[in-house]
Design brief:
- By secondary structure, this protein is mostly beta strands.
- The two termini are about 30 Å apart.
- The strands form 2 sheets. A 6-stranded parallel beta sheet has the order 1-3-5-7-9-11, with no helix packed on it.
Length: about 140
């Protein structure tokens, strides 16, 4: 599409029926938009130019609704945020091809539809709660 700049969360928050945002394969940049201000089921922001650490509270308050998070192929750094790990309904997570560091967090055991943490800079063992997934989902660069 070729969209660029910043995503205006203030404007999107005026759309109460909005359940999914999808801006895949564009040129948006900067930090992760403040998506916790929206009542979303899905966040699709892969293949952009987002960067920096994602705050630990980036997904706080979204536990009742958020099921799908796609942030692959950006420039995110730091640890995977605690608020993302705590989402009980999350069934699809793609954080591949970023620069996340630290150990892979312990997610609650669940039936994942999709999980990808590959091609980051994480270290340590795959947690037991994720041991039923394909090891390729965790391969490093």
């Amino acid at each position: 599409m070729g969209l660029a700049g910043l995503i205006d969360i203030n404007t999107l928050s005026e759309l109460p029926a909005l359940k999914t945002i999808s801006f895949i394969n564009n040129s948006f940049e900067g930090p992760l938009p403040d998506v916790k201000r929206l009542s979303l089921i899905g966040v699709y922001l892969s293949q952009n130019r987002f960067s920096g650490d994602i705050p630990d509270d980036a997904f706080s308050g979204m536990g009742g609704t958020l099921k799908k998070v796609y942030l692959a192929n950006n420039g995110f750094t730091g640890k995977i945020p605690c608020s993302l790990v705590a989402l009980p309904k999350l069934g699809e997570l793609d954080l591949g091809d970023n620069q996340f560091t630290g150990e892979i967090p312990v997610f609650q055991t669940r039936d994942w539809m999709m999980m990808n943490l590959a091609n980051n800079r994480q270290e340590g063992q795959i947690p037991a709660s994720l041991s039923n997934l394909n090891p390729a989902d965790f391969d490093g660069k």
